[in-house]
Amino acid sequence: MGTRTAATVVLSAALTLAACGGATSAGPAATTEAPVSVSGALTITSHLGYAGDSDTAGNPCTGMGGMRDIGRGTPVRVATDAGATLALGALGEGVTTDELGCRFPFTVPGVTLGEGAFFQVEVGGRGVVRVERADVLGGTIALTL
To answer: Which domain holds residue 113?
Structure first.
């Protein structure tokens, strides 16, 4: 293979890698990861923090008193570990649990995770909770007030 042919093959391979999302000497590849839905639940564990019939699991409930800001529609934010917002969602309808709590499920669609190992989840203005990537992908985010 002559010098010109070898140079053409190397350039062709570099262009193919760039077109496929691979890294080249021009810099790292752009993230082409498909967005995911992030799911979990927030549970109010103090009976003084929610209103609802707690005698039987599955009854409707909502936050009250110092937790009256927690209820269906309360914003849920998923962010990078540095705090950049990735996507927004909201709490679903609260239901009582067997453990005398009020559980609010949530799903935040359209989250592109990138390469991060940790992420932040925030419900309303209650502060952020740092969660691991495996929990984000596994739908096992369990937050408690």
So the answer is: 34-144
